[in-house]
Amino acid sequence: MKELLFKQKQILLFALAGALSAVIEIGSFKIFSVQLPQFFPQEQNFLGIHFPLSNIFSTTCGIVTNYFLSIWFVFERGKHSKKKEFTYFMLISFLSTIISLTIFQLFFRLVFLQYFDFVGIFVFSREMLSKISAIILVSVLNYTVKKNVIFNG
């Protein structure tokens, strides 16, 4: 029973850390995707890739935020040295980033072909819908891998 409560608490804390990291990632993506095209017009479509730098920079902000929240609130450390733990975390995050960028491109090109107007209160652009969807899908993979490979469960 105690283990089940711990698992539920850990999943809740992971979701909270992920949500906070996602806010950082989405917020920085919004800033980058608006500001970078002013300096690099090809940012909106670089060889068929939409917003590559905005995605990379914002994902990096989210990863760093998530690492610190994970070690402070979610997982138990000690399975690996701090250096190895950080290296594994970044390696898995790098692979997750590639997956996330791929999902973003697929959603942007094939799924979200129009913006979404949320009852006149808020409008989600194709970019934001694609980014949010990619974050949600990759989060499930991240939790499983980080829990079982990097940290002490």
Describe this structure in words.
The longest helix is centred in the N-terminal third of the chain and has 38 residues, at 2-39. Strand 1 (116-118) and strand 2 (122-124) form a beta hairpin. The chain has a two-stranded antiparallel sheet. Helix 1 packs antiparallel against helix 2 and helix 2 packs across helix 3. The chain has helices at 2-39, 52-74, 82-111, 126-150, and strands at residues 116-118, 122-124. It is mostly helical and 153 residues long.
Write the layout of secondary structure elements.
Blueprint lengths: L1 H38 L12 H23 L7 H30 L4 E3 L3 E3 L1 H25 L3
Antiparallel strand pairs: 1-2
- Give a short account of the largest sheet: 2 strands, antiparallel
SS content category? mainly alpha
Shape: globular
Distance between the termini: 16 Å
Can you count the helices?
4
Strand tally is 2
H-E order: HHHEEH
Detail the poorly predicted runs: none
Radius of gyration: 17 Å
Q: What share of residues are in beta strands?
A: under 5%
- In spatial order, strands of the major sheet run 1-2
Percentage of helical residues? Answer: over 70%
